[in-house]
Amino acid sequence: MSDHQNLLAEQRRALILDEVRRRGGVRVNELTRRLNVSDMTVRRDLDALARQGVVEKVHGGAVPVVETSSHEPGFEAKSALELGAKEDIARTAARMVVPGSAIALSGGTTTFALAGRLLDVPDLTVVTNSVRVADVFHTAHHAGSAGGETRPGAATVVLTGGVRTLSDALVGPVADQAIRSLHFDVLFLGVHGISVEAGLSTPNLAEAETNRRLMRSARRVVVLADHTKWGTVGLSSFARLDEVDTLVTDAGLSPQTRAEMAEALPGLVVAGEDEEEDESEGEDEVGVEGDEA
């Protein structure tokens, strides 16, 4: 990190978190010198990161929170983290969806945010193994309608069966069998962790297999992952990075991490920063109008 006096708090904390994960720990006096901010500012940043559960404060600095590779946070716990980043990612991903296409949304809080932005896209077919995602469409399409009728142009939603995880995803043999016979234009996939060595990973073995099945049924795979997912490794890897067509992430990544991602991934979109470029390139639209599941 170099000196940055005018960084926003969110950007500064992202840099601190990246440094903690890369080095295994940082000291307050180091951060004040590198970021050219006060001791009090750094301590406030560390307090905020500690409340998010991503660092642990120790005497004179902070270290990463060490979780077991099989630890799976619940949906509510994950929903409270990185809200701004998830909304940025969801907004960018929604612009990739073409009316009339068949898409899939996996379980996850970022795909949940995306679902809310797709309610006005007409004539979608949505396949999902997320109870929360399905409920977003169900609630919106029936709200205020006489006799519970679906409004014109509302999405057709296919919810797989399966065993419910702590993050409210349906996984296992029943989900896998339901997905096997389907084909969709694009999969929007949430992940627990992403790294060059481990690829995409999850703490849930059954979810890993269901995610593999989703990927095999999709013409294109778009991973939605905020910057805190980089460097996290779950119990089971289910895909290499070169099996992903596009990663949509947020502006919280350090330049060094962006370079590593761009090297390892076929496509990298930074939400917010790349939106103007996306608007001018029609090839970034990943649905195909009129295709059927």
Written description of the protein model:
The chain has 293 residues and is an alpha/beta fold. It has helices at residues 9-23, 28-35, 39-51, 75-79, 83-94, 109-116, 131-142, 173-180, 205-216, 255-264, 275-279; strands at 26-27, 55-58, 61-64, 102-105, 125-128, 156-159, 163-164, 170-171, 184-190, 193-195, 199-202, 218-224, 236-239, 246-249, 268-270. The strands form 4 sheets. It has a 7-stranded parallel beta sheet with strand order 6-5-4-9-12-14-15, sandwiched between helices. It has a 3-stranded antiparallel beta sheet with strand order 1-3-2. Strand 2 (55-58) and strand 3 form a beta hairpin. Helix 1 (9-23) packs across helix 3. The radius of gyration is 20 Å and the shape is elongated. It starts with 8 loop residues before the first helix and ends in a 14-residue tail after the last helix.
